[in-house]
Every structure is written in structure tokens, then in C-alpha cells.
């Protein structure tokens, strides 16, 4: 009987699924679109039942139908969900509120301020491994405790997205040990065991999921889940993880020196290191791959900003899509292809939803600087693409200061479909950018780790060996020289305007 591995990635605006065969080649892809709620400034939420689980079921059934295979031919399943999120569920795994999303949700600023005062700077460093920020889940649990006591009282488990999907599939509550140690501190120790003493301030120890390695089995598909997903009862399910981690694995970020930038709704990066790194601008910790460490961080906008540009500045092209049949992003890309480096003196700070690394300022604001009557919407869009690239350059500069050598830079995610954007990135950072042959992203990584989980790949080294490169984008040296000046302006714009941003 043929063997297949299924991977599902629930992202900010879309769920993607993939089936791979015994040679680890893609045999079917499908997806489902969804939205994200922004009920208040700095509040970002999704309905776990109606989006995460419903999408998983749609994608799972769709892949089986599209590939024309029998459910019993799928031997293992892996799934991830965007970032690290906070989802309280009852004893039947029913969500008690909408999921509070990853670092883009900055509602817990008062809780972060309280914890900083409560612990002090040195203890914060010991417990969290980095300065507290909107990526951390403990302050979000504390926010629920302070603001929604009725939800808090009913909570059986505080989960993240991948934990929720695994629980819906198997009935078992587990979490990737990397996510536990990276985002749920101080609720988990360095050995990924629940820290009962530190939990006391936030929740009961029994409200936390059991930490396992990402590729370890969470359990097997239950009869109820089989009916809803189309999978066969008893199918193996791995623990799973966050989307950025799966994305990193999907492109072979398994050995020190490799750096991945994930171009999704936000932009996230992972660097694989051979030692632990601490710096207030980025996050250091263990990595999903046993025996390695990570340096990670992200921006709050990437695809979200290009979507805003599309909806706000190119609404006519969006409306015309039904008539012309042309995808708006393709039209936008063609319109900016010939705009020179620097967008004729225009610089955009892409902080339209606050910002994470390296400034870690939830109150940062977006800025369009240098506008003249000569500029068009195309210049603004081009400058937005450059703004994300400037942020990438900032974070690479931090790594260089920390003596973290970047030997391979790999881009993945939806943004890689835009060659103009990828060339801008290569030009701004002055380095080659590699794009893998399979750039589906996190769902592919989950499918590979599912194969690893059932022993059909020996280890992460063998997993990495099956990943093939596609193309390398080389920087234009003349553009790189031009961009040095713009990177400097970009760096100074935030510093010069930080206080004014906070006044807003």
C-alpha cells in the first residue's frame, strides 16, 4: 500500500494543506481563506472552532479527494497554527473565547508592566530569557485572569493553536517543547517541564499541556475526529508546532548558520545557532531541532501591509479583478517593477500594527516619509516593500553585532512569489537570497515531520537532505550602494519620532 503524509498550516488569513508521498514529493495541495478580527486597537483574534478546526476539516477532506487516495493510505498527520496564541478551552476542548493571537496582539501591556515591576529586570531575564513583549503568552493568560474572570474560572487548559488541533484530533493535550520554552515561560522550565511554583501567579499547573518534541506522537485520530476530517481512525498525529517553526523546517533550517525569513502576513525569522544568545532586541532560546538553539524575531506587518496597500490604494484594480481576471498583486508588482531603488526619495516605516524586532515597541506607528507631488501610489507601494527589507537588514545587523555568522539566507512564504520584492530584499541586504524548490512553507514542514514522527525519516539531518533548492537571487551591487543611505534614514526615522508616536 502507498504511504502519504499530511501537513496542514493554519495561517493568519489562509489555511494551506499538502500531501506528500514516500519520496517526499508533493502530490496534492489545497487551502481555505479566512479572516482575522481586530475589535480594538492592539487586539487581534480568531475563532478557533470556526476557523482553525473548520479549515482543518475542509483541507483534510479536500486533499484526500484531490489526490484520489484512500484515508488509510495517510499514515501520519502534522499541523501548525499561526505563531503562539492563547486559547482557553473547557474540559471538552471547547473554546471559551476567541483565541488571542501571537505577538501582533498587544492588549496585555498593563500586565507586562506589572510583571516587569513584580520581578525586576534581572529576574525577568532569568525567567523569560528575553525582555517581556507581546509574543509572550503568560501576560495574556494574566490578562484573561484580570479581565475575564468567568472565562478564567472555566478554563481546563490554556492552549496554543497547534495544541488545540492536536487535542481535537486525538483528545490529548500536548505542546511542542520549543513553543513551551520560547513563548510560555515561566510556566515551563528549561527542561520543558511545568514549573508549578512560577505557575501560581498565572494559572494552575494542571491547566498547562504536556510538552513533547514536535515530531513525537500526540496520539491517534479518534472516531469523532475521523468523521469530521475524513481521516482514518487510528492515524498517527504528531505534536505539531507554530507556523514559523514549521516553515523553518520546511526549508532546512536544521544546522547552525542558516537563517530563514518567512514572508507571510507578518514576517518572522529563525536563525539556527550552536549556542544560546541573549539580547533585548531579539529572542534567543532552544530550537525545535534537538541540540540546537535559535535566534528569532519578527515584524508585525509584511503581507498584511501589502494587503492594506492593495485594499486602500489599489481598490480599483481589486474591483476590476472579476472583469479582467488578473490577480491584483500581479498587476501591482508589474506597475512597480521599474521604480528605482529608494522609490525616488520615499521611505516607509512599516509599523502599521506596532512593531516587534528589533525595536519591540507596540506603540510604534507607521510612517510615509518624503512624499512629494511627483510620487504616485506605485512609489508608495514600492517603498512599502523596501520598508520590510530595511527591517530585515536591521535584524541581520543585530546578528552581526552578536557574532552570529549568516552562511545561508533562505526566503519562504507567499511573499516569495513576488520577484520584485525578493530582488529588493537581496539588494538592500547585499546578500544572495535562496528560495527553495518547494516553497509551500509550513504545511510541507509539518508533512516532513509527520514522516519523521513515524520513523520514515531517520532524523532532522535526513529530513533536511530531501529539501531541494530552486533559485538564488543575487544582489545588484549598484542598488546595494544606494540602499545604504536609505537604511540609515530608516534607522533614524524611528528614533527621531518615537516620542511623537507614543503621544498619538
TrEMBL record:
GO annotation, biological process: carbohydrate metabolic process
Keyword Kinase: yes
Entry keywords, A to Z: Kinase, Transferase
SUPFAM superfamilies: Actin-like ATPase domain
Residue intervals of the Carbohydrate kinase FGGY N-terminal domain: 4-248
Domain Carbohydrate kinase FGGY C-terminal: 285-452
GO MF, one example: phosphotransferase activity, alcohol group as acceptor
UniProt cross-references to InterPro entries, sorted A to Z: ATPase_NBD, Carb_kinase_FGGY, Carb_kinase_FGGY_CS, FGGY_C, FGGY_Carb_Kinase, FGGY_N
PANTHER family in the cross-refs: SUGAR KINASE, XYLULOSE KINASE
Family designation: Belongs to the FGGY kinase family.
Name of the protein in question: FGGY-family carbohydrate kinase
Taxonomic placement: Bacteria, Bacillati, Bacillota, Clostridia, Lachnospirales
Amino acid at each position: 500500500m502507498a504511504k502519504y503524509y499530511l501537513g496542514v498550516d493554519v495561517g493568519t488569513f489562509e489555511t494551506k494543506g499538502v500531501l506528500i508521498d514516500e519520496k517526499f514529493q508533493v502530490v496534492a495541495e489545497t487551502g481555505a481563506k479566512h479572516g482575522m478580527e481586530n475589535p480594538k486597537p492592539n487586539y487581534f483574534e480568531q475563532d478557533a472552532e470556526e476557523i482553525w478546526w473548520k479549515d482543518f476539516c475542509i483541507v483534510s477532506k479536500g486533499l484526500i479527494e484531490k489526490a484520489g487516495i484512500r484515508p488509510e493510505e495517510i499514515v501520519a498527520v502534522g499541523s501548525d497554527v499561526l505563531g503562539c496564541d492563547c486559547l482557553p478551552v473547557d474540559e471538552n476542548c471547547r473554546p471559551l473565547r476567541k483565541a488571542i493571537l501571537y505577538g501582533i496582539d498587544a492588549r496585555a501591556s498593563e500586565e507586562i508592566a506589572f510583571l516587569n515591576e513584580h520581578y525586576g529586570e534581572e529576574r525577568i531575564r532569568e525567567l523569560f530569557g528575553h525582555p517581556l513583549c507581546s509574543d509572550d503568552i503568560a501576560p495574556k493568560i494574566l490578562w484573561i485572569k484580570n479581565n475575564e474572570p468567568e472565562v478564567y474560572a472555566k478554563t481546563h487548559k490554556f492552549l496554543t493553536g497547534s495544541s488545540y488541533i492536536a487535542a481535537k484530533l486525538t483528545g490529548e493535550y500536548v505542546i511542542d517543547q520549543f513553543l513551551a520554552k520560547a513563548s510560555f515561560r515561566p510556566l515551563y522550565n528549561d527542561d520543558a517541564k511545568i514549573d508549578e511554583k512560577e505557575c501560581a501567579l498565572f494559572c494552575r499547573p494542571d491547566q498547562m499541556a504536556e510538552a513533547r518534541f514536535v515530531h513525537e506522537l500526540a496520539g491517534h485520530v479518534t472516531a469523532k475526529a475521523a468523521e469530521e476530517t475524513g481521516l482514518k481512525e487510528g492515524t498517527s498525529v504528531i505534536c505539531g508546532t507554530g507556523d514559523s517553526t514549521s516553515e523553518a523546517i520546511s526549508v532546512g533550517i536544521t544546522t547552525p548558520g542558516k537563517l530563514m525569513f518567512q514572508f507571510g502576513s507578518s514576517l518572522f525569522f529563525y536563525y539556527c545557532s550552536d549556542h544560546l544568545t541573549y539580547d533585548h532586541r531579539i529572542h534567543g532560546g532552544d530550537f525545535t531541532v534537538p541540540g540546537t538553539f535559535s535566534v528569532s524575531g519578527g515584524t508585525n506587518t509584511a503581507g498584511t501591509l501589502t494587503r492594506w496597500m492593495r485594499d486602500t490604494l489599489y481598490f480599483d484594480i481589486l474591483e476590476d479583478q472579476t472583469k479582467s481576471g488578473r490577480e491584483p498583486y500581479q498587476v501591482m508588482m508589474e506597475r512597480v517593477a521599474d521604480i528605482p531603488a529608494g522609490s525616488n526619495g520615499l521611505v516607509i516605516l512599516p509599523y502599521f500594527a506596532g512593531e516587534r524586532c528589533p525595536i519591540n515597541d507596540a506603540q510604534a506607528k507607521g510612517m510615509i516619509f518624503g512624499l512629494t507631488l511627483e510620487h504616485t501610489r506605485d512609489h508608495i507601494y514600492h517603498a512599502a516593500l523596501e520598508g520590510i527589507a530595511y527591517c530585515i537588514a536591521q535584524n541581520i545587523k543585530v546578528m552581526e553585532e552578536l557574532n552570529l555568522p549568516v552562511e545561508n539566507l533562505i526566503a519562504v512564504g507567499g511573499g516569495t512569489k513576488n520577484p520584485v520584492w525578493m530582488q529588493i530584499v537581496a539588494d538592500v541586504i547585499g546578500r544572495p537570497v535562496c528560495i527553495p524548490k518547494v516553497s509551500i512553507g509550513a504545511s510541507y514542514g509539518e508533512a516532513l515531520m509527520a514522516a519523521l514522527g513515524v520513523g520514515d525519516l531517520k532524523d532532522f539531518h535526513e529530513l533536511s537532505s530531501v529539501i531541494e533548492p530552486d533559485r538564488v537571487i543575487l544582489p545588484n551591487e549598484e542598488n546595494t550602494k544606494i540602499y545604504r543611505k536609505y537604511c540609515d534614514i530608516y534607522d533614524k526615522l524611528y528614533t527621531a519620532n518615537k516620542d511623537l508616536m507614543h503621544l498619538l
